[in-house]
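Standup notes
- HV: blocked on the assembly model, inputs below
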Amino acid sequence: MKFADIFKLSLNSLTHRGLRSWLTILGIIIGVAAVIAMLSISAGMSQNMQAQFSSFGTDVLTVSAGRTRAFGPEGGFGDRFQPGSSQSGTSGQTSQTTTTPTLTDKDILAISTADGIETVTGVISGRSTVQYLAQTVTVTVEGVDPAAWNTMTTSQLALGRFLELGDGNSVLVGNSIANGMFNYNLTENTPIRIGSKTFIIVGILKQSGTGSFGGDDRTIFMTIPAARQIVTGLDTDQYSSIQIKITDTNAVDQITQNVDQVLYSSRQVTADTADFTVTSPTSMLETIQSTMATLTFFLTGIAAISLLVGAIGIANTMFMSVMERTRLIGILKSIGTRNSEIMKLFITESGIIGLMGGLLGIFLGFIVVGVISSVGINIMGMGRMGTGTNTSVAVVTPELILFALLFSTIIGIISGLIPARKAANLQIVEAMRSE
Amino acid sequence: MNNVVIELQNVKKIYKMDGVETHALRGVDLQIKKEEFVAIMGPSGSGKSTLLHMIGALDKPTSGKVILDGVDISTMRESDLARMRGKKIGIVFQFFNLHPTLTALENIELPMIVVEKDKKERQQKARELLKAVGLEHRAHHFPSQMSGGEEQRIAIARALANDPEIILADELTGNLDTKTKAEIMDFLLKLQKEKKMTVTVITHEPEIAQYAEKIVHIVDGRIKVGG
């Protein structure tokens, strides 16, 4: 029998089973859609993070208090890797308790003695209310040393200027705060009230694209003395974190070790009892990438289970179909159809179920991905709305589509293999006897 | 000898079911000659259906030889045997002969699809056969939309599709009324004469056997001599 005829016959019996065929296909549709959605969301998130990380200087290390391996016990990722920005979340308020180790001028001094260090600066960060006209919002406030920070940041100015030494009442405002957070956009020379003090905006940063991590876009910068008046809970020699600009980006690991060593001796701790963490953007990126890989694997695994259930559905339908058509198989054989052709007939049928499921699953997957993208839900809870940046939440690649189609068809074929074998091996005489 | 189409030599067939052996055929010798109209008669359980399966190469004997057109079928591969069945033998069964989701015309076309005949050729042939069995008006009807007699006529048309040398019919009129039975048998007889085919029918009805030139009686798995 020619393959075109086998295909037509398979399609014929599928269409005549109507609802049952569709229900079987539905199992695959859901499985494929779930896998597509999971993979593309993961791909989108990865791409998002890569884009964000690539905007940071790779020559800046961050020292934070407390011992962490990946993510800090307090706050988000932001305070670990981002140069000159973002003690996001609650770290400013909760990390500086009596039990939490702190970073002080002594540490800065110690670090500055390590090899490979260009600049060291302490950063103060916390959350504070900001009032403009009649509106009040709460944002991250950061106290920085302008001389050091200006050399470390990768952020650029949209308006005005950076902070300067001695800017007691001046602030530099992140793009998302200036545009969109208040009913009226902020511009330079506008007075705003932060905490209980009035400041003048001297500059507004360009969109940095790091909004998802609470980066520069959502932070107000001021000098350290000014910040000490806003952020409470820190002594005059204490800092929320320390930023280090290194001399050689190729020696990040070595310099990180150097910093570790000087801090071990100055803080009188060992590697095991260390009460601080040094992180580099690259190490952070690696950590996040491996976390993403695990997450992708896990999510896709769950989606794959639904695909497996769909495959079992195909196998079940095909077994039923062989049983119901036992006599027909006998007839087909009696008129000269070979066993191999009977096998092809059933495999083609299950393959078509897989292919159809794949096609429609991709379509449904697109819809799911589209909905998730438009709603802007970020699975990891890092998506903060209203940054205005159009970072893609999900990415559907042509490879993914091709893979899904191929995979679902193969799943269909494999699911149909055993039932098809059963059909092919039926003895004509026995098949003819069945009612 | 060379006008023998089918020859059975000491054919035995034993079915094993749950360890119990059933001797369906206990050594059958039979020759069916070219253009012969043979009826195989016997009570139910006598082994006549098994005999038809042997003649039609639908099953292989436990022992003995089935020689079809000079070839011992036990030496043939499954795929070759299947093709030979498709080209040389046309079989009509008692019930459920047709592919339920194909139209009358498509059903007749099916054996020609199996042996990979050219599309134009097979469609033309299917229409001719449909005309020959007088069911042109049923071309696009499904089996469920036809009467029992019509279904059997389509089944006969399908059996003729590849111009087989032998037509085998297993109780083909078993579930039809007397008038339709006569019609079908007359049609078969006419066909046999016109196309010079070998026809073997299995039946337990004497009035059907009347149509045959030769009647073979089978009882308890053996040919009854002098029947």
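- HV (later): unblocked. Residues 166 and 223 of chain A are 8 Å apart (CA to CA). Chain A has a mean pLDDT of 80.
- Next: hand off to the docking folks.
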